[in-house]
Write a structure and sequence with these properties.
Structural class: alpha+beta
Number of strands: 19
Distance between the termini: 55 Å
Helix content: 10-25%
Order of helices and strands: EEEEEEEEEEEEEHEHHEHHEEEHEH
CATH class of the largest domain: Mainly Beta
CATH architecture of the largest domain: Sandwich
CATH topology of the largest domain: Immunoglobulin-like
Largest sheet: 7 strands, mixed
């Protein structure tokens, strides 16, 4: 991949109980992050070994050793993508041999045969076999975040050896790409992203992209932080404890709210698509939510109805041991980057449905569902 001139940031993280941040270094084309790790604390339980490292979390899939890992969330500069990623380890320190690491337990199945409890790693090789894993790049309110996992501790099952790296350095080469159109430039969006990323100074590269310009249900001169989506029949129910009452209740506590009907969404051509696959009711509702998120600055969406009123999008997900399932999920309405079906088949949310990579898993809006189907159920909910 070609190297292109771009912003460079170098941040040093000393992984003590509280991380200490080092100075920045600027070079053309690259982001550089340096991590230093303290010696693991080794604990024994019933002859099994459990390791802890300051600032790290423990993880272990079924049949694999439980080890401490370092999740990393790196904000890419606006209009940039990771073209090349390299991780360099140094300062390997052996902790000795003869350890027997705790292994992740297998799930149980109610009313079915137990999963096989086979070992799922090669004891003759270090585990993990690599020093890192690139999870993917995800959009969060228009900010592009590269997610990785670092593995400073390694285990060789055959000899029981444990060793760790004192230092690890991530080098990221950047290339130009289109800015994420979901960037709103709101202070609360900056605050949310700043809580999880390694390099908050990169937020200074972001500038407002702009709003959806098509005339629609959403009037950009108004602002509703909370949007209730329901059927016309429920929305126009008379009496007390209606969704209008619920919206008014939210407003009394400083949260501006409004009710929008599915029928109005479906009639609005701004949410239509020429491709039938992306022109069903689910897609139109999602397009409306994107519009409300951008132009009403909506953060919360209540899907007010059972799935026969507000339809759900089934996701194609992988479970344990390579088994695949079609799972109903409202994540489709919460995570607004991409189409969730880049290959245009009948399986939504596949691991390659995010334009060749994973689908968006960072939610722009908080989505809840009121599973009601009648006026009486609505009143009980409200």
């Amino acid at each position: 991949m070609k190297y292109r001139t771009c912003l460079s940031l170098a941040v040093a993280f000393f992984m003590l109980s509280i991380p200490v941040y080092g100075g920045n270094e600027r070079r053309d084309n690259t982001l550089i992050f340096h991590y230093t790790f303290e010696k693991p604390a080794i604990h024994r339980y019933d002859n099994l070994t459990y390791a802890e490292m300051d600032g790290l979390v423990e993880t272990g899939d079924a049949g694999e050793p439980i080890i401490p890992v370092k999740p990393v969330y790196i904000l890419l500069p606006q209009g940039k993508a990771a073209a090349y990623i390299e991780v360099e380890e140094s300062g390997s320190v052996s902790l000795g041999e003869g350890y027997e690491m705790m292994i992740g337990e297998y799930p149980s199945r109610e009313g079915g045969a137990a999963y096989p409890s086979a070992q799922r790693f090669d004891p003759s090789q270090p585990f993990p076999v690599t020093s890192h894993r690139v999870v993917g790049t995800y959009g969060l309110r228009g900010f592009e975040i590269l997610v990785m996992v670092l593995y400073p501790l390694h285990y060789v099952g055959e000899t029981g050896e444990l060793y760790y790296f004192r230092e690890m350095t991530i080098t990221i080469c950047l290339e130009d790409t289109s800015p994420n159109p979901l960037f709103r430039g709101l202070a609360r969006d900056y605050g949310r992203v700043a809580q999880i990323i390694e390099n908050p100074e990169a937020m200074g590269t972001y500038a407002e992209v702009g709003r959806r310009g098509t005339a629609s249900l959403v009037d950009s001169s108004e602002e509703y932080e909370y949007v209730i989506i329901t059927s016309s029949a429920l929305a126009h129910t008379l009496g007390q404890n209606t969704f209008d009452d619920f919206a008014e209740f939210k407003g009394n506590f400083g949260v501006s709210a409004t009710v929008v009907t599915i029928e109005d969404i479906e009639r609005d051509a701004a949410y239509w698509n020429d491709t039938p696959l992306f022109n069903d009711t689910r897609a139109k509702i999602r397009n409306f939510i994107i519009d409300a998120y951008l132009n009403w600055h909506t953060d919360y969406v209540l899907l007010a109805g059972d799935v026969d009123i507000v339809p759900v999008r089934n996701m194609w997900v992988e479970g344990e041991f390579g088994q695949w399932y079609s799972v109903p999920s409202d994540i489709y309405y919460a995570c607004l980057d991409g189409s969730y079906n880049s290959d245009g088949d009948l399986r939504w949310g596949e691991p390659t449905d995010g334009n060749g990579g994973d689908v968006d898993l960072m939610a722009e809006v908080y989505v809840g569902r009121a599973s009601v189907g009648t006026a009486d159920e609505m009143r009980t909910f409200v």
